[in-house]
Amino acid sequence: MSDLRAVLFDLDGVLTPTAEVHMRAWERLFAPYAQAHGLEPYTASDYFAHIDGKPRYDGVATFLASRGVDLPRGTAADAPGEDTVCALGNRKDEIVNRMFDQEGIDPYPGSVRFLDAVTAAGAHVAVVSSSRNTPAVLAAAGLAHRFEVVVDGNVAAREHIAGKPAPDTYVRAAELLGVPVAQAVVVEDAISGVQAGAAGGFGLVLGVDRGVGADALRAHGADRVVADLGELDAAVLTRRDGGAA
Fold first, then answer.
1. What are the residue boundaries of the structural domains of the chain, listed by start?
2. Where are the alpha helices (DSSP H) in 69-133?
3. CATH of domain 19-103
4. Does 10 participate in catalysis according to the annotation?
């Protein structure tokens, strides 16, 4: 089998610890909102119970429902504010993008070392993420110039591409790089992401265990699992044995 020629990286949890920034942004949105409206205070447990893993507007609606608040849904075009679910969601987007711009975000050092290794070996690289904040995150992390192709939530919406666990966004990234899926590596930390890699027939699916669990990642499609990408080098482009690191 020919060598692997491309590495397709998920963003949140693979290249950057973005979830921590999003958690703080939700707190900055809902802590003052709850206080201003006489609601039960917002706590970190609300993030995991009502917001984590959901599309932004659904997270807003679920949190509000937990406090007995029923706002109109509105539309994605609503100005950031408090009149609709979408307006609140857009306010959160405004907050998190300001945080990325003002505070920045440090990428995982091990991920940068792995990125350096595979690009030095001649591999094409892309980012594949469901987040619409991907351009802001990559810029804040100082990584925007490192990737030839970015397929994010904005691209998926514009081109009507199905999201993970469907393989379509990863397939699209490989197409844009001009590399067959069988010669591309998918790097993911989420179950839905390794499922996408397995479903797409990619040459190698690397799981990064940031808390999901190595066994769960393998069970859903990862060929190999590491705790940090710094454990790997460009040898993954030629080795096909998979297995646990």
1. 6-17+105-237, 19-103
2. 85-103, 109-120
3. 1.10.150
4. yes
